[in-house]
TrEMBL record:
Domain Glycosyltransferase N-terminal as annotated: residue spans: 13-231
GO annotation, biological process: glycoside biosynthetic process
Protein name per its UniProtKB record: Glycosyltransferase
Domain of life: Eukaryota
Record-stated family: Belongs to the UDP-glycosyltransferase family.
Lineage of the species this protein comes from: Eukaryota, Viridiplantae, Streptophyta, Embryophyta, Tracheophyta
Organism the protein comes from: Anisodus tanguticus
């Protein structure tokens, strides 16, 4: 660590979702390893989540900074997070965060960072930082493929997207257009929601996975893009129930089990739960299935599943409500496949630990992520009909193909090789991004006469 780096302070400002906060925390660790001092800013409810995940070795270099949002009747402080938040309140949370802009300005004036790294969801942060003469960079926490697709759809609605592998079905395209319309901020100044030209965007990806998508994205947003590798947390098993889960896995044969999880913020409908349950039953595979319900919904797990399901699968399956040590589970030798919603953090962990994916995307970026995985040969999918409904027979077929069928050896070989390549390149990519950030700070200081 050189003296120049130790003088630099980074201010990290993620969106208020665990799926965004986690990669920001991993980025904070990478920057800390290179001598930076980090301020990680979020709401108190989210900081309580982050605090538990900061190892002692980073306690002095990563500081947590509270940002208080204005209260709305339907959005008390314990709801200043997307975790468990009803979907219809998401836009209210975004509004509350932006209304906290004066508080953010006060914090930045007090903390005096050398640069800001902000979530792409909060493009208005660029204007805040610029008004204080603080250089900034964006951080996109999902795939370059997905980002390029949505930017293309927004800017060139009538032009065909240039990469046919990411072609969406009609029902997926309709959902994507509705997502863009829902997130259009018509009551806000347009300049606050435009990506700054000639800016810097960091993405937790690699050229091996997404080179052509990164190049196209850079072209259409007119910014330089720097991959920083996949940001994966250490596979540490902690919390109640971990030991029981790992002991259960120890009794299963190698590659005989699938891990099933749809992320922390998607809640399966009754119909989806049924099709997945029957798919697991038909597959005859061992499985661990993590099921989550929205906050405040007191559902009985047995009643939420098809009648007699738990008795019929017996010790072949374990259904866990709420939480399971995902990273730790994916490292276990009995895991032969990951039935995933294809959130970017889950994808990154699966590739890191060499586990092929059964892709069942649900919303947001997930359909594009799933198609990317299928294109690069580390996943299989196609378990829905033309209207988007899940089919139990197809779910069972794909699970068996991924774990022990004709495709299994090639999938496993590809995902393991990709994981190794990403590990070897991630340090080099991160170092290149850090050098660019240092140059950004230097140019800003020269411009402001403080160098």
């Amino acid at each position: 660590m050189d003296a120049e780096n130790t003088k630099l302070k980074a201010f990290l400002f993620p969106w208020l979702a665990y799926g965004h906060i986690s990669p920001f925390l991993e980025l904070a660790k990478k920057l800390s390893d290179r001598g930076f001092v980090i301020d990680l800013c979020s709401t108190p409810i989210n900081l309580s989540f982050i605090q538990k995940r900061i190892p002692e070795s980073y306690s002095s270099s990563i500081q947590l900074v509270e940002l208080h949002l204005p209260e709305f009747p339907q959005l008390p402080p314990h709801n200043h997070t997307t975790n468990g938040l009803p979907l219809h309140l998401n836009s209210t949370l975004q509004k509350a965060l932006k209304l906290a802009k004066p508080n953010l300005i006060t914090i930045l004036k007090s903390r005096k960072p050398d640069f800001v790294i902000y979530d792409v969801i909060q493009l208005w942060t660029y204007g805040v930082a610029s008004s204080l003469n603080i250089p900034s960079a964006q951080f996109f926490t999902s795939s370059a493929a997905m980002c390029s697709y949505f930017v293309h759809l927004y800017k060139n609605c009538d032009a065909e997207y240039p990469f046919p592998a990411l072609h969406l079905r009609d029902y997926e395209l309709e959902r994507a257009r509705k997502l863009i319309q829902r997130n259009e901020k018509k009551d806000e100044p347009e300049e606050e929601n435009i990506m700054p030209k000639d800016g810097i965007m960091l993405i937790s990806t690699s050229r091996e996975m997404e080179g052509k998508y990164m190049e196209y994205l850079s072209e259409i947003i007119e910014s330089r893009i720097f991959p920083i590798g996949t940001l994966v947390q250490d596979p540490v098993a902690s919390g109640e129930g971990s030991m029981k889960i790992m002991q259960w896995l120890d009794n299963k044969n190698e590659l005989s089990t699938v891990f099933v999880s749809f992320g922390s913020e998607y809640f399966l409908t009754k119909e989806e739960r049924e099709e997945i349950a029957y798919g697991l039953e038909l597959s005859q595979l061992n499985f661990i299935w993590v099921i989550r319900f929205p906050k405040g919904e007191n559902q009985n797990l047995e009643e939420a599943l098809p009648q007699g399901f738990l008795e019929r699968v017996g010790d072949r399956g374990m259904v866990v409500e709420g939480w399971a040590p995902q990273a730790k589970i994916l490292t276990h030798s009995s895991i032969g496949g990951f039935v995933s919603h294809c959130g970017w953090n889950s994808i990154s962990e699966s590739i890191e630990f060499g586990v092929p994916i059964i892709a069942i995307p649900m919303q947001l970026d997930q359909p594009m992520n799933a198609k990317l995985l299928i294109e690069i040969g580390v996943a299989l999918g196609d378990v829905r009909n033309d209207n988007g409904a899940l089919h139990r027979e197809e779910i069972a077929r794909v699970m068996k193909d991924v774990t022990s069928g004709e495709s299994s050896k090639q999938l496993r070989s590809k995902v393991r090789n990709l994981g190794k390549n990403l590990k070897s390149k991630s340090v080099e990519d991160m170092d290149a991004a850090v050098e660019e950030l240092k140059q950004l700070v230097k140019k800003s200081k020269i411009k402001n006469g403080s160098f």
